[in-house]
Design a protein that fits this description.
This protein is of the alpha/beta class and 278 residues long. The protein has helices at 4-27, 41-54, 67-80, 98-106, 140-143, 158-169, 186-194, 205-210, 242-251, 255-263; strands at 30-36, 58-64, 84-85, 88-89, 92-94, 116-121, 123-128, 149-152, 180-183, 200-204, 215-220, 229-235. Helix 2 (41-54) packs antiparallel against helix 10. The relative contact order is 0.17.
């Protein structure tokens, strides 16, 4: 009896350890890593959660870098022959603009024919929420020479490039000479107007929704004044699980994804409406 009991306890321990190991294997989720622009944090987190709900064996992980850093990171990985970020290999790229995806596709950083446009935005004129009197149109910026206007650096991102297109298209470039306050990104524009460095700012409509307790839309850019801002996502050249990546890309085009994006204030390709926070 004294020999049997230790043996029984030993067998029980083995069985229990096997059960724990089996449970660990059963609950281990496959990562789907997206290298993205910080500007897409809200929509990608929401899409990731929805995708996980339908794929309980998958965990969507987001790694953020600005457009410039993202370009540098990918170029370094290609030059070094390593296709990993801090957390390991990654699957998808969402750099925040169609232009950057095009350049990456040309360099074969992303797989051809895998890019998918999934969200859109337009430009708006924003002011601090506490400001009672504000210009009600973009044309009003030319009439009030005292206004300093914060914009995103045209050399830094798609938002800046489209802003420059808007100013040129509306004939405002000369009128705003010496009055432009340049920020690195949309968050910088909002920071500048909230701290008095600029009086008004031009940002994407979706930025206002995230900060509507502090800023408000004073005017919306006329639809014909600039190209629609389009956000795209594509598969990384050495994606470790192409079928899974393809599933996520297809999901971004689904009715469920479109509903999520509209709820967050984004437009979707093929639909000209973009939610306003006015």
């Amino acid at each position: 009896m004294g020999v049997i009991l230790p043996l029984a306890w030993g067998l029980l321990a083995i069985v229990l350890s096997m059960g724990v190991a089996g449970a660990s294997l059963a609950t281990a989720a496959e990562p789907l890593v997206i290298l993205a622009s910080p500007s897409l944090k809200a929509p990608l987190e929401a899409l990731g959660e929805a995708f996980e709900a339908g794929h309980p064996d998958v965990r969507v992980k987001l790694h953020y870098e600005s457009a410039i850093d993202l370009r540098r990171t990918i170029a370094q990985m290609q030059n070094n022959g390593k296709h990993h970020i801090e957390s390991g290999p990654f699957h998808l790229l969402a750099p925040g603009g169609a232009e950057l995806i095009t350049r990456m596709e040309q360099k074969y950083y992303v797989l051809p024919n895998t890019r998918r446009p999934f969200a859109t935005a337009r430009l708006v004129l924003v002011v601090p929420a506490s400001l009672a009197e504000a210009p009600e149109t973009f044309e009003a910026l030319a009439r009030d020479a005292s206004l300093r206007v914060a914009i995103v650096d045209p050399a830094a991102s798609q938002t800046g490039q489209v802003t420059q297109e808007l100013l040129e298209g509306m004939g405002l470039v000369k009128a705003l000479e010496g009055r432009l306050d340049i920020a690195h990104d949309s968050a910088g524009v909002l920071d500048h107007i909230l701290h008095g460095q600029a009086d008004v700012g031009i940002v994407r409509s979706t930025e206002v929704r995230r900060h509507q307790d502090r800023v408000r839309i004073a005017a919306e850019a006329p639809p014909a004044s600039h190209a629609q801002i389009v956000y795209e996502i594509a598969m990384e050249r050495f994606c470790p699980n192409r079928p899974l990546c393809q599933e996520f890309l297809v999901f971004t085009q689904s009715p469920e994804a479109r509903t999520i994006l509209k709820r967050l204030g984004y437009g979707v390709p093929g639909d000209d409406s973009v939610a306003s926070s006015r």
